[in-house]
């Protein structure tokens, strides 16, 4: 073996002996024990902060979930109450209509003639005055019902003639009633005689009268409903499915079919 290689091994051995005591000396271990807490402490603090933020977020999520559940329960309760009120209103309306049908079945020729003549008179008074665009729609509906009443009278169907004449009078009263009130858009007037109508086009059934009111549903063209009250140019109706809402009086037209018999109520 060459001599320079022997010298190289001897040098490495001497360096190893010099370094090893340094790495395992008590001073190095003391330095490591001092540095370890300094390195670990920021990590532990950051870890604790993250845990605290996570717990706070979890509590906030639980609070929001509880609040959402409470709101959903309130909405369900309100929906049940509205359904019950609509059902009660429908039952009351059916009972009133049942009584009205019984009375109209007893209508005689003189009673029908008198009802038609009365509406013709108020219609003439209405035509002699200036009529606004919105009132023109109501007048047209009244005239259609009056014409139907006259035709039914000619057919000796006096009960139906009285019924249509009464509905025509309600439309006329809407015009005169709105004229006589200072703020017609703020007063709801119940009809004495419910008016069967149908949608002239696809229309919005709104929660309250007004174009900004929430839309409850869209009624398809020819959908049947009954007018129970009015406020200004808006009609409060009950749909064939029993839903209550408001529609514009310009978007419906009166039904000219024969009134239902008492057995149908």
Give a brief description.
With 265 residues, the protein is of the alpha+beta class. The chain is built from five helices and seven strands; from the N terminus they run H-H-H-H-H-E-E-E-E-E-E-E.
How would you describe what is shown here?
With 265 residues, the chain is α+β, with helices and mostly antiparallel strands. It has one domain (73-264): SH3 type barrels. 62% of the residues lie in helices and 16% in strands. It has 5 helices and 7 strands, in the order H-H-H-H-H-E-E-E-E-E-E-E. A 5-stranded antiparallel β-sheet has the order 6-5-4-1-7. Strands 2-3 form a two-stranded antiparallel sheet. Helix 3 (109-127) runs antiparallel to helix 4 (133-154) and helix 4 packs antiparallel against helix 5 (158-180). The longest helix has 79 residues, at 26-104. It starts with a helix and ends in an 11-residue tail after the last strand. The model is unreliable at 18-24 and 259-265 (pLDDT under 50).
């Amino acid at each position: 073996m060459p001599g320079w290689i022997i010298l190289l091994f001897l040098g490495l051995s001497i360096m190893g002996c010099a370094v090893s005591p340094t790495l395992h000396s008590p001073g190095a271990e003391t330095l490591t024990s001092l540095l370890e807490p300094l390195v670990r402490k920021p990590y532990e603090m950051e870890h604790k902060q993250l845990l605290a933020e996570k717990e706070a977020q979890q509590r906030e999520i639980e609070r929001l979930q509880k609040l959402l559940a409470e709101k959903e329960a309130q909405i369900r309760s309100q929906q049940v109450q509205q359904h019950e009120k609509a059902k009660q209103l429908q039952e009351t309306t059916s009972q009133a209509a049942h009584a009205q049908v019984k009375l109209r079945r007893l209508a005689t020729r003189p009673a029908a003639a008198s009802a038609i003549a009365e509406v013709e008179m108020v219609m003439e008074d209405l035509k002699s005055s200036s009529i606004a665009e919105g009132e023109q729609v109501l007048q047209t509906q009244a005239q259609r019902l009056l014409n139907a009443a006259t035709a039914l009278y000619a057919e000796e169907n006096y009960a139906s003639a009285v019924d249509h004449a009464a509905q025509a009078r309600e439309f006329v009263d809407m015009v005169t009633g709105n004229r006589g009130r200072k703020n017609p858009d703020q007063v709801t007037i119940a009809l004495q005689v419910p008016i069967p109508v149908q949608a002239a086009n696809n229309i919005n059934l709104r929660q309250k009268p007004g174009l900004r009111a929430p839309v409850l549903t869209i009624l398809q063209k020819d959908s049947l409903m009954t007018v129970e009250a009015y406020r200004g140019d808006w009609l409060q109706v009950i749909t064939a499915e029993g839903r209550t809402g408001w529609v514009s009086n310009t978007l419906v037209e009166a039904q000219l079919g024969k009134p239902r018999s008492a057995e149908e109520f």
